Amino acid sequence: MDNSSGVGVLDKAVLVLNALEAGPASLAQLVSATGLARPTAHRLAVALEHHRIVHRDTQGRFILGPRLAELAVAAGEDRLLAIAQPVLTQLRDLTGESAQLYRRQGDVRVCVAAAERSSGLRDTVPVGAALPMTAGSAAQILLAWEEPDRLHRGLRGAKFTAASLASVRRRNWAQSVGEREPGVGSVSAPVRGSGGRVIAAISVSGPLERLSRSPGRVHAAPVVAAAERISEAMRRGAQA
């Protein structure tokens, strides 16, 4: 099938964006994924970076930029956020803890939606906050199903291990006890898109005095159920 629009430079820019959908890429990886000449791939990536459609991570690799998320929100077409927000609210009300949705963006995870506990001790993570991929249950979820090379790179400096991520994959949820912040615990589960790919992590978080030293025992079931509701809604939308 010919996917050419007849506008060569636009088609080549889309090739770059399609390549970055799979994750961060060096210039050499962009050239390999797109089949573009090295100078062309570099010129297009830098031009897209100028418009914030492409960004660089801390290792200098190209990643999808913040402008794409801004445009999706402005157009009201971000299905994941539209589906997730009422589920987050239900999860907060069920558990009594703050609930968040995270997406990975290069070397950080970004809180893209949240439902905050209204009173008492809480773990407040504002929408738009960028947190490290080296600590926390959501980071474990967003890393656990990565390709082996990306997974092992992600473990550098992490507060969790390859063995703990293997456990995450087996049970389909992760917990954190003071990894990101002392005295705070969390439980997360994977949200999956088409093909079963992990596209986000849904979490609840709060003080350990409520979540205990085994927060998964307390909240894993409702968090996993919430993740499955969002995933199923995403699958139905993709088939429509």
Stated plainly, the CATH topology of the largest domain is called Beta-Lactamase
Query: The biggest beta sheet, please?
Result: 6 strands, antiparallel
Radius of gyration: 19 Å
Q: Structurally, how many domains make up the residues?
A: 2
Secondary structure tally: strands: 8
Percent helix: 40-55%
CATH homologous superfamily name of the largest domain?
GAF domain
Provide the low-confidence segments as ranges.
Answer: none
Going across the biggest sheet, name each strand in turn: 5-4-3-8-7-6
Q: Tally the helices.
A: 10
Secondary-structure-based class equals alpha+beta
Strand percentage lies at 15-25%
CATH architecture assignment of the largest domain: 2-Layer Sandwich
List the secondary-structure elements in sequence, H or E.
HHHEEHHEEEHHHEEEHH
Distance between the termini: 22 Å
The top-level CATH class of the largest domain is: Alpha Beta
Bulk shape: globular
The overall average pLDDT, rounded, is 89
